[in-house]
Design a protein that fits this description.
This protein is mostly helical. Helices cover 54% and strands 9% of the residues. It has a domain of 82 residues.
Length: 138
């Protein structure tokens, strides 16, 4: 019987630490951006130990952020999925306007049906003032 069918494939295993393709790519992107920052912040290396520590800290931030995105899950979803959910939520309208189907599709319900017959909506809904006015108009 095959087991672990719902788990993603592991592409890299170091001792007991395994990475999926998604995690590996995110960590490579974070390391690449961090390495680029390390090279561009070479000016800070001229300010002694404090400059080197600041350079290292600033270069590690993209890698640590990629590590967080790659490994952390909240409610069974990764952070980039929650980002998509948040963006879709923010793009939705905040105010909805309700319109009845009957008001939009008046061509389906004629105003004056044949003699002695009731509209389809008059058969199913209770007597209201609008239906009473409609019956009196006939």
């Amino acid at each position: 019987m095959p087991t672990h069918l719902n788990l993603p494939d592991q592409v890299l295993t170091l001792w007991s630490f395994s990475l999926t393709a998604r995690q590996l790519l995110l960590l490579l992107v974070g390391a690449g951006i961090g390495g680029t920052l390390w090279q561009h912040l070479a000016v800070l290396g001229h300010h002694g130990v404090f400059g080197q520590a600041l350079r290292l800290l600033l270069a590690l931030l993209p890698f640590l952020l990629a590590l967080l995105i790659a490994c952390y899950q909240y409610a069974g979803r990764y952070l980039e999925i929650w980002g998509v959910v948040l963006v879709r939520y923010r793009l939705r309208p905040t105010c909805y306007l309700w319109r009845s189907i009957r008001a939009d599709e008046q061509h389906l319900y004629p105003l004056v049906p044949g003699e002695g017959t009731l509209d389809r909506d008059e058969k199913t809904r209770p007597q209201t003032s609008s239906t009473l006015v409609r019956r009196k108009a006939r």
